[in-house]
Amino acid sequence: MILCVRFRLEPMGEALLPQLVELLGEFTPTVEVAPPSEVLADVRGALRYFDWSPAELASVIRVRALALYGVDCVIGAGPNPMLARMAAREARPGITLVVEDPAAFLRDRPVVALDGVGRTTARTLCGYGLDSVGRVADAPLGVLQRLVGAKTGRELWERARGIDRTPVVPNAVSKSAAAERSFPHDEIDRTEQRRALLSLAEELGTRLRTEEQVCRSLALTVRYADRSTTTRSRTLPEPTAHSAALVSLAYALHDSLGLQRARVRGIALRAEGLTGAEGAAHQLSLDPSDEKARRIEAVADRARAKFGPRAVLPGSLAA
Is-contact 215 190, C-beta < 8 A? Predict the structure, then answer.
């Protein structure tokens, strides 16, 4: 049995996600994170060990998340990840939706509700009258493969019957990483906001280089005094973990908001589209200062690894 837990985090609350994942880790080691707020957990062993039903285990997780972190969640349970995710999308806070009969659960749903079915595929299927999951399940495999291709047709045919062979992969590489700062008071000083951005970009850059990853884009979220938020994102010229590039783009995103004297309560920065650094290409530069900055960065990383994260800081942050 798979649980899909969707935590109801604040717009800048992803910093709590590691603690919430540890909470699930108390019941099972097979936990896969899908930031910013979704977690899949294979709990078959836990159900046998505690002799609980999926709904009983889900209620314990929900109560602990609320008691320890003040975070509510919705939980779906099913025999595989696809059904668990679909159940979580329909579950309500305080009630766990458990899929016990996959065929009955899926039959009357629109075909676009299936994982992997986008607008183009759905339009093709609907054009032939295959507008529900039940009708797709009843269609011959060969017909589906002629309509959408051999591999896609096979996957669609299986998923319409509630079959999902995707495993829950513990400690899977995250596709995003986030850091945030909350100000002690509503901050209107642009300089202080940019100092926070510098700190966030440096933190993300160090984390990515330590984990040998690079990011493709950055997303900036600003929370105001009235608890409303604004988010802007932009793609980097090339995938990178270089702090200087992250800082430059973070400043550009901040400038694009035109905040002027807005009362800012907090700032969050998210690195998105993470991939392994070994597969990333770096455009060679004739600027000697860029190569010098990268060498200094590598030395600073070694110092932080040995003496702690605050061993080397930009001058404006150390002041």
Answer: no
Q: Name, in order, each residue with C-beta under 8 angstroms of 66's C-beta and a sequence gap of 6 or more.
A: 72
Give residues with Cβ within 8 angstroms of 111, minimum separation 6: 117, 122, 125, 126, 130, 131, 132, 133, 135, 136, 160
Q: Round to whole Å and give the CA distance between 106 and 93.
A: 22
Tell how strand 73-78 and strand 97-98 pair up: parallel
Q: Give the number of C-alpha atoms closer than 13 A to the C-alpha of residue 94, restricted to the C-beta side.
A: 0
Element (H, E) at 261: none
Q: What is the pTM of this model?
A: 0.60
The amino acid that residue 142 corresponds to is G
Distances (CA, A) of 262 to 73, 86, 187, 229, 265: 32, 40, 8, 12, 10
Kindly state the DSSP code that residue 227 receives in the 8-state scheme: S
Q: Per-residue pLDDT for the chain (319 aa), expressed as one digit of tens each?
A: 888 988 887 655 566 777 888 888 889 888 888 766 788 899 999 899 888 999 999 999 999 988 988 888 899 999 998 899 888 888 888 888 898 888 888 888 888 888 777 777 888 888 888 888 888 888 888 888 888 888 888 888 888 888 888 888 886 656 777 788 888 888 888 888 888 998 888 888 888 888 888 888 988 888 888 878 888 888 888 888 888 889 899 999 998 888 877 889 888 888 888 887 776 655 555 566 666 777 777 777 777 677 766 666 676 665 5
Phi/psi of residue 71, nearest 5 degrees: -115, 125
Cβ-count burial of 113 within 10 angstroms (0-12 exposed, 13-18 middle, 19+ buried)?
middle
Tokens encoding 237: 């010229």
